[in-house]
Write a structure and sequence with these properties.
The complex is a heterodimer of chains A (283) and B (296). With 283 residues, chain A is an all-alpha fold. Chain A has 12 helices and 2 strands; from the N terminus they run H-H-E-E-H-H-H-H-H-H-H-H-H-H. In chain A, strands 1-2 form a two-stranded antiparallel ribbon. In chain A, a hairpin with a 4-residue loop joins strand 1 and strand 2. In chain A, helix 1 crosses helix 5, helix 3 runs antiparallel to helix 5 and helix 3 packs antiparallel against helix 7. By secondary structure, chain B is α/β, with parallel strands linked by helices. Chain B is built from 9 helices and 13 strands. Chain B has a 6-stranded mixed beta sheet, with helices on both faces. Chain B has a 4-stranded antiparallel beta sheet with strand order 11-12-10-13, with helices on one face. Chain B is elongated and about 75 Å long. The model of chain B has no long low-confidence stretch (mean pLDDT 89). Chains A and B meet through helix 1, helix 4 and helix 12 of A and helix 1, helix 2 and helix 3 of B.
Amino acid sequence: MSGRHSDLTLIWLQIRYQNKIFWRTPVAAFFTIVFPLMFLLVFVTIFGNETVEELGITTAQFYAPALAVFGAVSATYTNLAINTSISRDEGILKRMRGTPVPPWIYLAGRVGSAVWIAFLAVVLMMAVGVVFYGVEIYAESLPAALATFVVGVACFAALGLLVAALAPSGDSAPAIANATLLPLAFISDIFLTPAEGRPAWISTLGDVFPLKHFAVAFSDAFNPIETAAADGWLDHFQWTRFGVMALWLVGGAVLAARFFSWEPRGGERRRTARQRAKAAQAT
Amino acid sequence: MAIEVTGLVKTYGDLRAVNGVDLSVAEGEVFALLGPNGAGKSTTVEILEGHRTPTAGTVRVLGMDPETGGRSYRERIGIVLQETAIEDALSVREAIAYYGALYPQRRRPEELIEIVGLEEKAAARIKTLSGGQRRRLELALGIVGDPEVIFMDEPTTGFDPSARRQAWTIIENLASLGKTILLTTHYMDEAQALSDRVAVIRAGEIVAEGSPETIGGRRDAETQISFMLAPGTAPPGLGELPRGDGGYVLASKDATRTLHELTTWALDRGVDLGMLTVARPSLEDIYLELTGEQSQ
């Protein structure tokens, strides 16, 4: 067999194999796909699926899109951060670097796979909402929802790679990813509705980070009040929120590219120094 | 020359990991880089693989600079890494197909599985493989792109004796196909069995280079003849040195003559030469002498 595969074929192959690896890693699949669904079940059970007075929509109508965003962010940000830094620790990134595959194709494959899984997580969440909890979907605002998804996952994929680039090791990556995502989810209209009272500065703090913009822009596309107020499908696009996410996307991508390493930090230098010291001791 | 290295230096702060190495490996040659841990073997190989940037010196592999050769360079080399990690969730066959797809010249997965003897494990997940089976898969991944030059960093470290023999057979087969192979090892028998030429590296410098038979003046080194005499027997007086346990060692540059004199003396007197042995210095003896390491 001979002939170089095209870049597109290579990206496609990378995505396929990364997907295969993802589905064979039950822990990751559980936290990304099942975990957000459990939240939906818990919230609807606790609060009941009545119309929340302050919001004017049902509990599920609020939580399904919000938790869909949470799943999408888990699939991109958390998974890319954790899996990429573990692969680096294990030497898989170094192995890849020794093959002819261009680095950008390899990373595009990882990102592509994460985005695909994020898409599945979102579709599954919304489907469960529609089928079991009477969540409504509005055709007119679907393009805006899709656009928000694209901008959002791109942003969080870049940030996930940034965490992978900065994490000292694969052991610390999960801590960093979760310690940043979970608290942020509480102030980003994901775990708590805006109906819960909160100090103004918390609200402002949430506005600084991209998660709230992802969650609100996506949720608004499933909000009958917002939808009714909009004038045509293009009016659903929340450009300011896209702008904030785009800023984080560019910043994350630039810093990730600057600090990304294909080998564990200082591995070579440490190894040689350690071996020399040991050899010196032995003689 | 398939590999040409001149004045290679790699420093990490104060540490000179590689300190002025010159190497040349001809096409189709099997070249072994010997040396203790931390001597600079792996650093040298990793520079050749394009994983590291040299501090000084020039490196050419297949006429290309590994640092800038990029994709077209990596399409022509194969790497067998020292500490292996392969995507655990994939099966042996999937991993070979996955990595093979990255190269323009791909060897058929089934053919490779047969070469490394993993037929029974072809469908098994990599996480279920034993250490030796993983290393054999590693060998398969190193040659999946049908490379012209293969780098092997300690290819059989951690193998049991039979797995090592199998790996040697694979490497010999690759060599017979005309592949250029640069391997590092700290097993002398491996270097002896596989390589056309060896170089001994110590503290970042090459201290000897040659064929396994002649390196370090091995061919001209004295032969050691040792024997035991019954208590009370006077030694022959041929220049032998007492060993302390009733035995004697006789070092000779002309072993044929010395041995003849010794056995004639013994037969004439009806003396029994107990445990008579004739030994050439092994590659290991030479290596230990060159690297200043103690035998363990």
